[in-house]
Amino acid sequence: IVTIIAMVVPEVQHEERSASQLMQVHRGTRLSLHSDNKSYELGSCVEDMLEQYGAQQFEFWKQKTLSDPGDSCACDNILLRLQDSFSSRSSSLKLDIRLEQEAYEIIVDPEQKQIEIRAISALGIFNGLQTMFQLVAEHTGAVFSSYIFDFPHHEWRGLHLDVGRHFQTVDFVKKYIDLMALHKYNRFHWHLTEDQGWRIEMQQFPELCDIAAFRDVRVESKHQKNQIEHEYYCEKCANPKKRFQGNYGGFYTQEEIKDVIQYAKVRHIEVIPEIDLPGHCLAVLTAYPELGCTGGPYRVACSWGIFDDVLCPAKEETFEFVEKCLDELCSLFPSKYFHIGGDECRKTRWKVCPGCQDTIKRLGIEDEEALQCYFITRVAKLLYEKFDKILVGWDEILEGNLPSSDHVVVMAWRDWDYAVKAAAKGLKVIGCPISHCYFDFIQTNEDNEPGAFWSKIVLDLERVYSYTPVEGIQPELLLGGQANVWTEYMPCSHAVEYMTFPRACVLAERLWKQEGTKPFAQYLGQLNQHCSNVLDPLDVSYCKKGL
């Protein structure tokens, strides 16, 4: 018999159990909503969640894993109760009031033949259900009489997906979101534009779909050691090489975007869009060459890397384009955060562009880095004042002495040092350093192991498990962390799953329960069980190496 804690990833914060009583979750167990006044007030939200996600997911687990209870004590009911506060048993535990909406209690009561999930919000109920879904995935389904109080350590628990390099279907994006929800991630960072493709329907700029969304792949690629793009991954693909013949690409219609946002909302996941500016814009420039310093001609990138051609910050047409794009996209994405990239913007063209050099002189700024700061600051002001959005950018937005702002968030990807620098300015930060959070990196040193290796980092499970924020960042400025899934070497959904899982399970552990985690060798057994009982039934093509 396995306790609740040992069956849940991420592990719960607190459990009190009695080894003397056991209860079996079985195929006849039902989900129900408590009928008191508090539950009635918020009941529509919970009922919507159950109708669109919870009941369906519970039925899936029952069909896949559960047997009849036999002679053991049977759990007849899993009761969901919304209440004004948590029980007195939770009072001794340190719960950040900012995170109490995500907290929940579970009471396993064999005498009543019932498991009760309590929370003060539908979000808390949802998190409790994720724990229950993993619990019933265990073949025995037997649990001790227990009291659980659980809550997250970090507010921002993000998982990123780059669809610019390799496009992914709506169905796969939804599966990705389901797997996020199961592991209590709450921010889906959707990287939607790249040098290699623009992935959103734009009514004001149709050429972004007609031209910028597609590339000629016949001249691709910059293969390097250990980077085998399709044969290694695509045993499940009927014709893995077909996608590499002729033009490659695609985009999401605005209706599809709305569908994904709603799908994520029911699962209590916020969708954060990213439109990369002013670098990584070759696809944009191919469609609208007048936005570059040279005027082109340009070509949607057919290889990976960093390119010299970027948006020209000296042209008002550039800012008019950005504003019109934001006008369309901010009405589409309800999140208060909007990611504008800001990374890897080469200054090669700016250094020789007469307009850029005149702008530097006119503004009285020092150099091209300060010119980038001018661009970022102007876009941040636009986002906040016109669209009531908070700008999120990669840590390069600090270049040129970015001023302190309550409506700018820095994602520190190169090193924790950039998070410390941002926090020293009073900026909020998200920690996603390449040392622990870049899931495109190889997972072993084997000769044919797929993935990127430019950093020389082998990002195995133990390394991910060691993710810990550095000292020097005020707690109120550290929003949390996330994993980044760059897809240069992930040509299909199976490749994305292989590179993302189970590393995403491990990072979820560190973001949810930072303190008091067990030694890695002990945790690995729990993770192995989780993969067998949870990922296998969901048909996830995860990496089994290192388990």
Give a topology summary.
Layout: E1 14-24, E2 30-33, H1 37-65, E3 77-82, E4 104-109, E5 114-119, H2 122-137, E6 142-150, E7 156-162, H3 170-182, E8 187-191, E9 193-194, E10 197-198, H4 207-210, E11 214-216, E12 247-249, H5 254-266, E13 270-277, H6 282-287, H7 316-332, E14 337-341, H8 348-352, H9 354-363, H10 368-387, E15 390-394, E16 408-412, H11 416-424, E17 428-431, H12 434-437, H13 461-465, E18 478-483, H14 493-500, H15 503-512, H16 520-535
Parallel strand pairs: 2-3, 3-5, 7-8, 7-18, 8-13, 13-14, 14-15, 15-16, 16-17, 17-18
Antiparallel strand pairs: 1-6, 4-5, 4-6, 9-10, 11-12
Helix pairs in contact: 1-2, 3-5, 7-10
What does this structure look like?
With 547 residues, the chain is α/β, with parallel strands linked by helices. Among the domains are: 5-150, Chitobiase/beta-hexosaminidase domain 2-like (Chitobiase, domain 2, 2-Layer Sandwich); 193-213 and 250-403, Glycosidases (TIM Barrel). It contains 16 helices and 18 strands. It has an eight-stranded parallel beta barrel with strand order 7-8-13-14-15-16-17-18, surrounded by four helices. Strands 1-6-4-5-3-2 form a six-stranded mixed sheet. A two-stranded antiparallel ribbon has the order 9-10. The radius of gyration is 24 Å and the shape is elongated.
